[in-house]
């Protein structure tokens, strides 16, 4: 069994980006600039945005954190988005989700200039991705593709079952893995909460991508010998024995499934760390496309 180590791979990608940025600097070129918009004080969002900003600093990008009050009106936030769209110093920006309930997330995401949408959530980017045109690919599926490619996991002609059809993980990864090219050419089945006899499908799969958010849902009896397993799930599960009072669980019963798998991502340390690295990669692409 080969561990698909997202921690090491994401660090490698960051080093590659750092080197490119240092070359840009030595040629007197402008370095990529990412801004992050954070509305309110949600603890998890603060942690995510904080690590995105720190990663920018690590690779040599310019970064700007824009913190806005929890009670900001939708109109005022749209004005802020308009300012960011017009700011030529910025290559890309993200609006950290979730937004407070009084703000329509869809309206905000649609207002982002697709050329600066490094999260890849705008329909223009999703459409371009589906049509195999240059696009910002959402960071989590992009990270999965990088793991498969860098570890040479065989995908061509293989049957991949994706469990989950969300707009940010399940749906895009199912499109990417069925496309021509590296880590693609798979025959993809997309499963969801209405799927009947899920275990019959997963038992036929050469590759399983679990993106549903139910801890340890995929058990060894649902997996064929030698399958490659990608676990996207991240759920906090209460655990009194742990100093933090919780542990992070994936969607895969890791210990038993790892016994049968040919490749497997751990949680934590698998898909999770790849996400920030791919956001940086998208920001670098934004700078290169802006030139
Ligand atoms: P969503 O809740 O948006 O989607 C979950 C999907 O799973 C839905 O399509 C749902 O089906 C399907 N589903 C739910 N229950 C079942 C079931 N019993 N059998 C089959 N399918 C089911 O989640 P996300 O895609 O946003 O996230 C999924 C997980 O990945 C979460 O744990 C999240 O925290 C994690 N995540 C991790 C990231 C990372 O960086 N590693 C990034 C993003 C997410 P239906 O459509 O019918 O409702």
In short:
With 291 residues, the chain is an alpha/beta fold. The chain is built from ten helices and eleven strands. The strands form three sheets. The chain has a six-stranded parallel beta sheet with strand order 1-11-8-7-5-6. A three-stranded parallel beta sheet has the order 3-2-4, covered by helices on one side.
Write a structural description.
By secondary structure, the chain is α/β, with parallel strands linked by helices. The protein folds into 2 domains: 28-113, Leucine Dehydrogenase, chain A, domain 1 (Rossmann fold); 139-272, Rossmann fold, CATH 3.40.50. It contains 10 helices and 11 strands. The strands form 3 sheets. Strands 1-11-8-7-5-6 form a 6-stranded parallel β-sheet. It has a 3-stranded parallel β-sheet with strand order 3-2-4, covered by helices on one side. It is globular, with a radius of gyration of 19 Å. The structure holds NADPH dihydro-nicotinamide-adenine-dinucleotide phosphate. NADPH dihydro-nicotinamide-adenine-dinucleotide phosphate is lined by residues 140, 163-166, 168-170, 191-195, 198, 211-214, 232-235, 271-272, 275.
Total helices: the number is 10
Ranges where pLDDT stays below 50 over 5 or more residues in a row are: none
Annotated CATH topology of the largest domain: Rossmann fold
Strand order of the largest sheet: 1-11-8-7-5-6
The distinct bound ligands, ions and cofactors come out as:
NADPH dihydro-nicotinamide-adenine-dinucleotide phosphate
Question: Structural class of the secondary elements?
Answer: alpha/beta
The major pleated sheet works out as: 6 strands, parallel
Distance between the termini: 43 Å
Strand runs, count: 11
What form results from the Cα inertia axes?
globular
Helix proportion of residues, in percent?
A: 40-55%
CATH homolog superfamily of the largest domain:
NAD(P)-binding Rossmann-like Domain
Taken together, the total number of domains comes to 2
In the CATH hierarchy, the architecture of the largest domain is 3-Layer(aba) Sandwich
Q: Which radius of gyration do the C-alpha atoms yield?
A: 19 Å
């Amino acid at each position: 069994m080969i561990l698909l180590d997202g921690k090491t791979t994401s660090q490698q990608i960051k080093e590659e980006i750092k080197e490119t940025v240092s070359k840009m600097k030595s040629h007197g070129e402008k370095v990529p600039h990412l801004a992050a918009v954070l509305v309110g004080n949600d603890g998890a969002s603060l942690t995510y945005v904080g690590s995105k900003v720190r990663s920018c600093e690590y690779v040599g990008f310019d970064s700007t954190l824009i913190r806005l009050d929890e009670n900001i009106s939708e109109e005022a936030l749209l004005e802020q988005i308009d300012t960011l769209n017009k700011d030529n110093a910025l290559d890309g920006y993200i609006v950290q989700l979730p937004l407070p309930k009084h703000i329509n997330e869809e309206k905000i995401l649609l207002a982002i200039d697709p050329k600066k949408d490094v999260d890849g959530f705008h329909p223009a980017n999703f459409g371009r991705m589906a049509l195999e045109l240059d696009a910002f690919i959402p960071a989590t599926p992009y990270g999965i593709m990088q793991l498969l490619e860098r570890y040479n996991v065989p995908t061509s002609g293989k049957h991949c079952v994706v469990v989950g059809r969300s707009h940010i993980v399940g749906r895009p990864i199912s499109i990417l893995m069925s496309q021509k090219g590296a880590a693609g050419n798979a025959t993809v089945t997309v499963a969801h909460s209405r799927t009947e006899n899920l275990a019959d499908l997963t038992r036929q799969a050469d590759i399983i991508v679990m993106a549903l958010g139910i801890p340890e849902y995929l058990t060894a009896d649902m997996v064929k010998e030698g399958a490659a397993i990608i676990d996207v799930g991240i759920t906090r599960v209460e655990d009194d024995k742990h100093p933090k009072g919780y542990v992070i669980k994936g969607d895969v019963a890791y210990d038993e499934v790892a016994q049968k798998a040919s490749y497997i991502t751990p949680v934590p340390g698998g898909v999770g760390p790849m996400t920030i690295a791919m956001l940086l990669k998208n920001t670098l692409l934004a700078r290169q496309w802006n030139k």
